[in-house]
Amino acid sequence: GAGVSQSPSNKVTEKGKDVELRCDPISGHTALYWYRQSLGQGLEFLIYFQGNSAPDKSGLPSDRFSAERTGGSVSTLTIQRTQQEDSAVYLCASSLVQGKGELFFGEGSRLTVL
Amino acid sequence: KQEVTQIPAALSVPEGENLVLNCSFTDSAIYNLQWFRQDPGKGLTSLLLIQSSQREQTSGRLNASLDKSSGRSTLYIAASQPGDSATYLCAVSGTYKYIFGTGTRLKVLA
User: Fold this and answer.
1) Cα–chain-centroid distance for residue B46?
2) A54-69 pLDDT, tens per residue?
3) Can you tell me the distance from the alpha carbon of A12 to that of B35, in angstroms, rounded to the nearest whole number?
4) What is the pLDDT of residues B14-61, one digit of tens each?
5) Is the peptide bond before B40 cis (omega within 30 degrees of 0)?
6) Cβ B110 vs Cβ B15: under 8 Å
């Protein structure tokens, strides 16, 4: 597509439920990143994918968080047993070349856990 | 560990003023530095990318400079307009990870 696409744009869920957030990067971009932005806070790195290499999961805050990238394109971030502190905007970004290319962001998925 | 700081955290200026936003980083071993703009409730929009071998980049009324040795970058906005009101973030990349500053919230008053 023309840009990075994320869905859903907004998600309200109850504490304890599982949620899935989807990211469709720019076509041809091999690097894909997930970040989290809490209210009034900076961007927190979550996970990074580069091609078929093993992802860097060092930023995932707990084992309730997981992500996968199928076929080197679309990525899904899954949060199990959601907690209120998971409420944030989850941003996906992609770049053509890992670490050296321009980074392009989607509009984000706003998650609210009641 | 790379740390990125942006000063000031917030800035309010009258329309027409030229202004400078600052970004500093602790580890000079970077591949590039990128400036973004974020409007409320939106994602980040890329403004300028400066590769490590470059000193500056320009786009319209925006000019970004990079001094790797001192760990600093500045974003210069000429003739500011109310539409420039947004949060501006800088990010530096190492091997692959982009580290972000916490941003400068800019308000341009009409």
Assistant:
1) 10
2) 888 989 999 999 999 9
3) 31
4) 999 999 999 999 999 998 999 999 998 889 999 999 998 999 999 999
5) no
6) yes
How is residue A85 written in tokens? 């502190």
CA separation for the pair A109, B43 (Å, rounded) = 9
Place of tokens 């009409």: B110
Strands of the sheet with A5-7, listed across from one edge? A5-7, A19-24, A75-79, A65-69
Residue A98 is encoded by which pair of tokens?
A: 């890992």
Which residues have CB under 8 Å from B45's CB, separation 6+? Answer: A105, B36, B37, B38, B39
Residue B105's H or E segment, with its range, is strand B104-109
| C-alpha closest to that of A111 among A6, A13, A7, A3 | A13
CB spacing of B89 vs A43 below 8 angstroms: yes
Contact A45 B44 (CB under 8 A): no
Best mutation target, B100, B102, B104, B105, to test chain A (most A CBs within 10 A): B100
Which residue in this structure is represented by tokens 């319209």? B60
